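Batch job 17 of 40 flagged for manual review because the log was empty.
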Amino acid sequence: MAERKQIWRRAYLASRAARRIAHSRLPLTLQDIRQIIQAIPRSATIAGYLPLSSEVDVLPLLREWVEGGGTALVPTPAALTSGGRSSPQWQRLSFQEGEDGCEEQTPECASGTGDGPPLGVLSEASLILIPGLVFGRDGRRLGRGAGWYDRALSQATQGAILVGVCHAGELVEAMRVPIEEHDRLMDFVLTPTELVICRRTNL
């Protein structure tokens, strides 16, 4: 199974590289998950991610959530700089004005200065947006192989709504994505063009 996963990873990483996908062209907003968030208190915490250049951009969605009174968590920068090998830690996402007067996204830590310990833990999140290389319509997910989200999701509550996020061409039919026993299934998969219900929830 590990070998099959590697084959799939290489194929989808090569596909992304060949297409030179830019996440900034494919932003997601709260409108894209309206079916899900209607059951979540507007003051609740959701978790997302700071997108790599080839990943679907969820920052506009997170910004809307924060500006509407909610809290958004994202992985600390260590997750990116370590290639996913760091211990999963989360911090609040805030939106500040840059030096040129344009608004920019800046994750802030507990001290408010950007250099304190991370704010919050994943168990606070009612909904978690999770990137991946490929997802199945049955909620199966294949990540980059470092196991960062496998470790992170062990901190999530069983009631948290898991939403996989990928490009439209990275969503495949059920039972195709190779997974192992420890892999956690998504409740939904979200692309820039579709929201797929994978598993029954209380929504």
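Reviewer: the log was empty due to a logging misconfiguration, but the result itself is present. The mean pLDDT is 86. Unflagging and moving on to job 18.
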